[in-house]
Each structure stands twice: as structure tokens, then as C-alpha cells.
Design a protein that fits this description.
- This protein has helices at about 10-30, 35-110, 115-130, 155-160, 180-190, 240-244; strands at about 135-145, 170-175, 195-205, 225-230.
- The relative contact order is 0.10.
- The longest helix has about 80 residues, at about 35-110.
- Strands 1-2-4-3 form a 4-stranded antiparallel β-sheet, sandwiched between helices.
- With about 240 residues, the protein is an alpha+beta fold.
């Protein structure tokens, strides 16, 4: 017994019925299978992008920022080291120049203590006579011991005030005469070969006790000048250094 095949019209009706059922099923749901698969793939890709950004890009940026800060710090240390090196070389040159200047001053600007002491006495008395002045007080001489040496009780105050690394003498003198003569006297002291430092200068009119000496031969008023000075000499062994 042979099976009968459906007629073409029947097949067409069945196809239409299936198509209508499929269209109704698609319309009844928001997402179909294809949409769900596509959405899942998109979410997976988005998740991969977020994970890659958080796992790779953010740490890389942080490390780059840290490396840039480290580079800036190292460059700053390098500049500081170069500045310190240049400053050290400059300081060494400055110290060398100061040392040479000090040695030149001590060997050429200062004289031996014994020779300088006698030269100071003669020079000061000669300048007083040269400028026509009258010595009313002094000169008094107080030895100045170098710093660190034991001073005698009588010279302790003078040493404390004018003491230096060099041995020296504190001089106090009061002279009277015309003002112009006193000016020349001070100038001569400052320009003399002897290294003398004028610490105190006091000027006043000559006292009445001077009597007829209150006025000069030309009738000009006399002025009293008091000077506090110090002079310094070479340290022991300075001549040997210069001789070497």
C-alpha cells in the first residue's frame, strides 16, 4: 500500500502556519536566542576591556609616574652634587688664596717683635717732634700676648680687648697742638711702614692747666688728641717660613 504525498497546496499551508507561529513567538519575547548570544558576547568583551584597563594600563601609568618622580629626584641630586663639587673647588681656591695672602701679610707686612718694638718707639717720638706736638701723657706701652698664651695680670684687660693671634703692643698717647698738626700726625701714623691700628681717637680743647701753651705762636687754639693704638709683630718662626 503506497503512502500518499501531501499536495502542494497542503505544504504551502503548513509552511505558512509554521512561519506564523515563529513570528508570533519572536514577537511575544523581548530577546531571542541570537540577541542573547550577541549581548553576552558584548558583555564579555566589555569585561575584558575593563579588566585589561585595571590590570595593565592603570599600574603601567602609576609606574610611569613613579619613574618620572625618581628621575626628577636623581636629576636634582646630580645638580646638587655638581653644585657642591663646584662650590668645594671654589672654597679650596678661596682658602688657598686666603692662606697665601695671610702668609704674605705676616712675612712682608709684619716685622720681627724685637726689631719692631724699637722701631715703634723711635717712629712715634719722631712723628711727635716732626709735627710740633707736645706730649702730655704717655706714650704708654702694654704688651699683647698671642691668643691662648698666659698673660700677666697687669695686661689682662688690654689682651682681652685687642688680643690677636699675633704678639703685639697696645699704645696709649695724648698730645697737644694745632688741629692741622694733629691731622698730619694721624696721617703719618696711618701711612708709616709700621703696622699700627688706631682703635680710639678723642679730641678736645686743651685744658687751662696748659697755661701759655693753650695757644700757639700764631694765636690758634690748641687741641688735645688722645690715641689708643695697637701694633702687631710676626709670630715665632714666621721668618723661617718666608726664608723657605
Amino acid at each position: 500500500m503506497s503512502q500518499q504525498l501531501p499536495s502542494p497546496s497542503t505544504q504551502k499551508s503548513q509552511f505558512r502556519a509554521r512561519f506564523s507561529n515563529l513570528r508570533v513567538s519572536r514577537q511575544s519575547g523581548v530577546f531571542g536566542l541570537a540577541e542573547i548570544i550577541g549581548l553576552a558576547g558584548a558583555l564579555l568583551i566589555l569585561l575584558l576591556v575593563v579588566v585589561s584597563y585595571l590590570y595593565f594600563l592603570v599600574p603601567a601609568r602609576s609606574r610611569r609616574a613613579a619613574l618620572e618622580l625618581e628621575r626628577a629626584r636623581l636629576q636634582s641630586q646630580l645638580r646638587n652634587s655638581q653644585d657642591l663639587l663646584a662650590r668645594g673647588q671654589s672654597i679650596d681656591a678661596t682658602v688657598h688664596g686666603i692662606t697665601q695672602s695671610l702668609e704674605a701679610f705676616e712675612t712682608a707686612g709684619l716685622v720681627d717683635e724685637n726689631r719692631g718694638r724699637m722701631g715703634l718707639y723711635d717712629s712715634l717720638n719722631s712723628l711727635i717732634r716732626k709735627n710740633g706736638l707736645r706730649n702730655t701723657s704717655g706714650p704708654s706701652y702694654t704688651p699683647l700676648e698671642p691668643v691662648g698664651s698666659k698673660a700677666s695680670p697687669g695686661s689682662r684687660a688690654a689682651n682681652t680687648k685687642w688680643q690677636s693671634i699675633y704678639p703685639g703692643i697696645a699704645i696709649s698717647v695724648t698730645v697737644e697742638g694745632p688741629y692741622q698738626n694733629l691731622r698730619r700726625f694721624v696721617r703719618d701714623i696711618e701711612t708709616s711702614k709700621q703696622f699700627v691700628v688706631i682703635n680710639t681717637v678723642e679730641l678736645e680743647r686743651a685744658t687751662e692747666s696748659s697755661g701759655a701753651s693753650d695757644t700757639g705762636s700764631s694765636g690758634t687754639s690748641l687741641v688735645s688728641l688722645r690715641l689708643e693704638m695697637t701694633t702687631y709683630f710676626q709670630r715665632a718662626g714666621a721668618e723661617n717660613i718666608s726664608g723657605d
